[in-house]
Amino acid sequence: MSIITDTGRIVPGTIRPGGLGTSPARPDGVAKVQGTFAFSSDLGADGVLWGATLRSPHPHARVVSIDVGPAWRVDGVAAVITADDVPGHATYGLIDDDQPVFANDFVNYVGQPIAAVAADHPETCRRALAAIAVEYEVLDPLLDAEAAIASGSVFREQRIRYGDPEREIAAPGVVSVEATYEIGMQDQAFLGLEAALAIPDPGGGGVELHVATQWLHEDRKQIAACLGLPEQQVRLVLGGVGGAFGAREDISLQVHSCLLALRLGRPVKMHYSRHESFLGHVHRHPATIWMKHWATPDGRIVRIDARFVLDGGAYCSTSPAVLINAVTHTQGPYRCSSAVVDGYAVRTNHLPCGAMRGFGVVQACYAHESQMDRLAEALGLDPVDLRLTNAIRSGDPLIHGQVMDSVAPVERCIRETVALPFPDEPVGGHDGDPLRLPGGAGRTADVQHVYRGIGYGVSMKNLMYSEGFDDYSTARCRFEVTADGPVATVKFATAEVGQGFVMLAQQIARTVLGVEDVVLDRIDTDVGSAGSTSASRQTWMSGGAVQAACRAVLAAAVERYGSVEAVPVGEVIDETAEYHHRPTEELDADGQGACHTAWAFVAHRAVVDVDPDLGLVKVVQVATAQDIGVALNPLSVTGQIEGGIAQGLGLAVMEEIVQIDGRIRNASFTDYLLPTMLDMPPVLASLIEEPEPQAPLGAKGVGEPPCISVTPAIAAAVRDALRQAGRDPGTLDRVPIRPTDIVAASTIERSR
Fold first, then answer.
1. Domain-embedded: residue 616
2. Are residue 497 and residue 447 in the same domain, yes or no?
3. Domain count, the chain
4. Which of 240, 263, 486, 598 is 20 to 30 A off residue 376, Cα-Cα?
């Protein structure tokens, strides 16, 4: 059997097949590859009706009147509901319940729900929605983030004051650099669209909702409040999830589908289109960040000033938490003696923003890594050497007053990334294959006009929830010895969104109990909460809960029978366990407090080819070394790293939601550009295994870190390529980098 020590280290030579440290096949893998896996959109039921939502066409308006009468006259319509038909709370939300189930007096963004219908066919729904007559008084929208601050339209403001800033910059020879950076709005762009099936109880006493979500119990709490029902009368079952990345933390169609099902006493299915999905879920916060660094001549950072402005859109969602992550990661994975930081998460009439992979740290990292390159240039130092000089270590203080007490192999991440081999292929490939050139086959560049650049990025990411949130996860293990042998059944409410926890839970049970046959029970709310599948927390939190439940079974077996192998046929041992991480605390007025639980670290190196005349970029290679604690499933870890790099690449050079006058202009995968396999470069990954003592399995979350510093690494590589071409990259301070940004770089000198 496998042995994993209290420090999380897997003992060599003890690894059980299918246990921790191996890479067994995913239980859902074959079905997904063959196309037989049941995603939420594939669900159905006898007598099912279809539901659909009417949405506002205006970013801001007063709702004068709603006439649903014409919709009722469409043949096949079974129900039409508005705000007047919500029996419980009229609003919901994760941090602040400020988002209406249906708009009543005002609409505050394009796409806000106005009404919903149920009918016998999706086309009938479409015609019914078109028949609803809504009179609006169109109002001027608030679309400027700075104007929002001036008017007090702010979800949260947080400052950080640390050290003695004036003293630090008074020393002789101190050099400073500053710039303003912009990050566009990114979509989570999951392939599986929002879908749900609501099945009412006979007699209308409650409802069972099958839905793709990231947090079953939080959904249930909000849904039950809006329905005016006790939580135990609302049961949620996890439907197949086709990706999430933070967008499924907030509820979308859940309340609408349940309201319609309860109203009609029949199952109701709702399924968004791609266009509606862009309107129906939150997105990554666009941000403007001003940052200034001071450093001594030898490169030691002594002060950082920064100002963060994050546009949260119309409703709160998780904007306050995103802001806290952003400002507390101002320094990045580097020591800093003092800091003056001001941060704002503002309310506008743009699309709502909330959680997305990296959760505020993506924005902060793009700024601080761009600053590190600027600072290296100003000091005449190598960018890698500057990062090594300032690399944070365990025991170092952070600018929000917390001590870095996680395992922090930042120097190792950097050095191992630098040591990974560079691509063998020359600039542009030189083999006549147009797919190797910037622009690919569609807009083939001339290899004579292509220049290569290299860039680095380093980041850290907090793991789990912060600021005093009582974070926990629950799991149950049922052990039974049958005539065919021992079987362990594991039950949890952990949302499997593609990260592979359904596989990891089996690995944990095999390792702890020494059994081969591990069965996963249905993922639903019939067990305690597992929290959200977000914040790189499920391996740590739900893994800890599954481990604790299995250990409780093992302890009970030893107490009753002497060993788990001695449990007699027919005997059942059933144990439930909760796992909590250590408590955290809220930041005070000066941004001081032990607000985070732990951190993970990563470094990236990007190699790009750029045609500066056409503005085209080809990412040739990404190399990375990531601090993972322990590789519980090496193949899964590598998959998470590659997927995160793809999203970071997208933000660097192509992905952005375009809003003009508060209206999205590219709500489709035709116009919202995503990286494809042709855009993905080879990835070289080094897994740094230094077990984290705080973590129950020694493993750190790996889902978020890989998408964070790859974006500034690619941007830095593009800037380097432009320098090689004799162009000034000084204005490339925004991502995604557009072709026009590259073409607009002014000429310094034409030399190769």
1. yes
2. no
3. 3
4. 598
Position 719, amino acid = R
Please give the model's pTM, rounded to 2 decimal places: 0.96
At residue 317's C-alpha, the angle toward residues 316 and 318, to 5°, is 105
CATH value at residue 240: 3.90.1170.50
CA distances from 45 to 36, 210, 267 (A): 18, 11, 7
Q: How confident is the model at residue 9 (pLDDT cuts 50, 70, 90)?
A: low
Angle 39-42-44 (CA atoms, 0-180°, nearest 5)?
130
DSSP SS3 for 692: coil
Helix 710-724 × helix 361-379 angle, to 10°: 40
Is residue 440 very low, low, confident or very high in pLDDT (cuts 50, 70, 90)?
A: confident
> Of 580, 604, 633, which residue sits at a domain end?
580
Amino acid, single-letter form, for residue 536: S
Residue (of 594, 590, 623) closest to 606 by Cα position: 623
pLDDT at residue 14 in the model? 57
Residue 69's CB is within 10 A of a number of other CB atoms, namely 11
The pLDDT value given to residue 203 = 82
What's 586's DSSP letter? -
Give tens-digit pLDDT for 86-127: 999 999 999 999 999 999 999 999 999 999 999 999 999 999
Residue holding tokens 């116009």?
671
Do 564 and 600 have their domain in common? no
677 and 697 assigned to the same domain: yes
Could you tell me the two tokens for 727?
């162009």
The residue whose two tokens read 């933390």 is 249
Distance CA 610, CA 620 (A): 10
Computed over every residue of the chain, the mean pLDDT equals 95
C-alpha span between 158 and 486 (Å, rounded): 54
Taking only the tens place, the pLDDT of each residue in 535-577 is: 999 999 999 999 999 999 999 999 999 999 999 999 999 999 9
The first and second tokens of residue 116, run together, are 């919903």
Q: Which residues are within 8 A (CB) of 594 and not within 5 positions of it... i.e. 6 or more apart? A: 401, 402, 403, 584, 585
Q: Are residues 733 and 691 in the same domain?
A: yes
Domain region containing 59: 41-140+198-272
Distance CA 567, CA 556 (A): 10
